[in-house]
Amino acid sequence: MDRHPGTAPDTVTVLWCTTDGDERRKAHTLLVRTAADMLDVPPSELWLAHEEGGRPFLGGAGGALEVSVTHARGALAVALTSGSPVGVDVEVVRRLRAEALARAWLAPVEADWVAGLLEEDRSAAFLWLWTQKESVGKALGRGLRQGGMSRRVPLPESWPPGDGAPPVLHPLPGHRETASAATVVGGGRLVIGVARHDGHRPEPRLGGTDLRVHQVGPGAYG
Predict the structure, then answer these.
(1) Cα torsion at 160, 175, 212, 7 (round to 10°)?
(2) Which residues partner with 107 through β-bridges?
(3) Rounded CA separation 145/36 (Å)
(4) What's the farthest any 2 CA atoms get from each other in the chain?
(5) Any idea what the Cα angle at residue 65 is, between residues 42 and 170, rounded to 5°?
(6) How far apart are CA 78 and CA 27, in angstroms?
(7) Is the pLDDT confidence value at 198 over 70?
(8) pLDDT tens column, 77-110
(9) Shortest CA distance to 194 belongs to which of 81, 103, 101?
(10) What is the spatial distance between Cα 66 and Cα 47, in angstroms, rounded to a whole number?
(11) Residues 6+ away with beta carbon under 8 Å from 112
């Protein structure tokens, strides 16, 4: 049987959706159902659990997959891959004191970048960086501890980034074994950050990782 694309070592699959509540349960259901589909096994043959530090993992038939899950008010996302730890984070775009937050929490070059944007763009741009830092912390298994907010992530060449192109994982400055990306979805209402840590490989292959981000409907978790 051919391997599902989502279980290939060079592919990260991210699924997201909006919802009207109960985000945590729905995110867990979506993760288990998606993993079962990828592995071609019944959902009853795998389950979601958490390490002592909080990192999620799949037991049973799902042990070959690396996973991450996130939810915010009215939104959720899951990430699945194999071979390397992955992280995902979702944030709802809302008006923030983005420049002040950037000066307080981000690396100086990142804060300068946020401050240099139009005021109406700064909140989404701050969350574009924040979600990547959260996802990097998840991929590393330590959250934002040990300098997580000062750990730089790649800056886009322009804003808004991509101009409709799919997101691409780029290595972190000074940490080439870890890569991250972010994308604005839902008509500008949500930002999703994704990261993958390939540090256990002698030759990290992050540059060739295929990042697939897709919206799903209520049937995926209902």
Answers:
(1) -170
(2) none
(3) 32
(4) 53
(5) 140
(6) 7
(7) yes
(8) 999 999 899 999 999 999 999 999 999 999 999 9
(9) 81
(10) 13
(11) none
